[in-house]
Amino acid sequence: MAKLSQEELLEQFETLTLIELSEFVKAFEEKFDVTAAAAVAAAPAGPAAAVEAAEEQDEFDVILTGAGEKKIQVIKVVRELTSLGLKEAKDLVDGAPKPVLEKVAKEAAEKAAESLKGAGASVEVK
Prior knowledge:
Residues 39-43 have low confidence and may be disordered. The protein has helices spanning 6-14, 18-32, 37-42, 47-56, 71-81, 86-94, 106-118, and strands spanning 60-66, 98-104, 122-125. By secondary structure, it is α+β, with helices and mostly antiparallel strands. It is 58% helix and 14% strand. The protein contains 7 helices and 3 strands, in the order ααααβααβαβ. The termini are far apart.
């Protein structure tokens, strides 16, 4: 096997995801009976971490935190946003805080939050 330079090794590590890199570090520690705690702590500061963070935040949850004074209007909006029936929508609104929509695009989450706020509900987008 040809010996890789430090530059070549770094190029290979740049292509790994954080999970793959973490698995590599664990295998390295076991193979050579060492601890690479400093390297693991520094890894999230790299460019791969920024890419992973950007990829993770493409799905949002719309959480109903309170129905407000116009509960009937909020139930109607919940029914419009979801495929829930009247009873299920009412139970969701009564049981707040509960998620109305999960893992939706940013635009859809913002639109749903606006609709719920317009009906008088308090909403949180995560």
